[in-house]
């Protein structure tokens, strides 16, 4: 860079404030876009302290409905007789607590998102991702988190 007298300014060895802010913005945007993902469920990570625990009784989870275990923020559904599913009870949109399953749906009362009680798939937004599913098994009359 030179001025009208022909003086050449030395190159800057440190980035300008504008360059730093621009680079930070690009990194943040890239991270945000990477976080959008493909709508696939996040890896199941059972809440601390619940693994191996009986979290509900089979008799407490109605067929075609379910229940919310507030202690561990887990929703248990029984979409068909003898089939039990466990999902995060936090809506992926803004983290609101979802309601207990009814009519094959898990609903978020905050913004109206709806999820399939069999798969956790988001059927109606604004949530753009499914509920996280947790592995479980039935032992006798109890539902146990794996």
Automatic annotation (TrEMBL):
<dbReference type="GO" id="GO:0046872">
    <property type="term" value="F:metal ion binding"/>
</dbReference>
<dbReference type="InterPro" id="IPR017941">
    <property type="entry name" value="Rieske_2Fe-2S"/>
</dbReference>
<dbReference type="InterPro" id="IPR005805">
    <property type="entry name" value="Rieske_Fe-S_prot_C"/>
</dbReference>
<dbReference type="InterPro" id="IPR036922">
    <property type="entry name" value="Rieske_2Fe-2S_sf"/>
</dbReference>
<keyword id="KW-1015">Disulfide bond</keyword>
<keyword id="KW-0411">Iron-sulfur</keyword>
<dbReference type="InterPro" id="IPR006311">
    <property type="entry name" value="TAT_signal"/>
</dbReference>
<dbReference type="InterPro" id="IPR014349">
    <property type="entry name" value="Rieske_Fe-S_prot"/>
</dbReference>
<keyword id="KW-0479">Metal-binding</keyword>
<dbReference type="Pfam" id="PF00355">
    <property type="entry name" value="Rieske"/>
</dbReference>
<keyword id="KW-0001">2Fe-2S</keyword>
<dbReference type="GO" id="GO:0051537">
    <property type="term" value="F:2 iron, 2 sulfur cluster binding"/>
</dbReference>
<dbReference type="GO" id="GO:0016705">
    <property type="term" value="F:oxidoreductase activity, acting on paired donors, with incorporation or reduction of molecular oxygen"/>
</dbReference>
<keyword id="KW-0408">Iron</keyword>
<feature type="domain" description="Rieske">
    <location>
        <begin position="53"/>
        <end position="145"/>
    </location>
</feature>
<dbReference type="GO" id="GO:0016020">
    <property type="term" value="C:membrane"/>
</dbReference>
<protein>
    <recommendedName>
        <fullName>Cytochrome bc1 complex Rieske iron-sulfur subunit</fullName>
    </recommendedName>
</protein>
<comment type="function">
    <text>Iron-sulfur subunit of the cytochrome bc1 complex, an essential component of the respiratory electron transport chain required for ATP synthesis. The bc1 complex catalyzes the oxidation of menaquinol and the reduction of cytochrome c in the respiratory chain. The bc1 complex operates through a Q-cycle mechanism that couples electron transfer to generation of the proton gradient that drives ATP synthesis.</text>
</comment>
<dbReference type="GO" id="GO:0004497">
    <property type="term" value="F:monooxygenase activity"/>
</dbReference>
């Amino acid at each position: 860079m030179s001025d009208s007298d022909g003086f050449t300014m030395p190159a800057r060895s440190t980035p300008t404030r504008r360059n730093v802010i621009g680079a930070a913005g690009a990194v943040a945007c890239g991270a945000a876009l990477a976080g959008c993902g493909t709508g696939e469920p996040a890896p199941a990570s059972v809440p601390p302290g619940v693994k191996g625990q009986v979290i509900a009784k089979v008799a407490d989870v109605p067929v075609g409905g379910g229940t919310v275990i507030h202690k561990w923020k887990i929703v248990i559904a029984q979409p068909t007789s003898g089939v039990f599913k466990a999902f995060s009870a936090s809506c992926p949109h803004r983290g609101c607590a979802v309601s207990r399953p009814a009519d094959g749906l898990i609903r978020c009362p905050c913004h109206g998102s709806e999820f399939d009680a069999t798969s956790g798939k988001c059927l109606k937004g604004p949530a753009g991702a499914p509920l996280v599913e947790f592995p479980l098994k039935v032992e006798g009359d109890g539902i146990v988190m794996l």
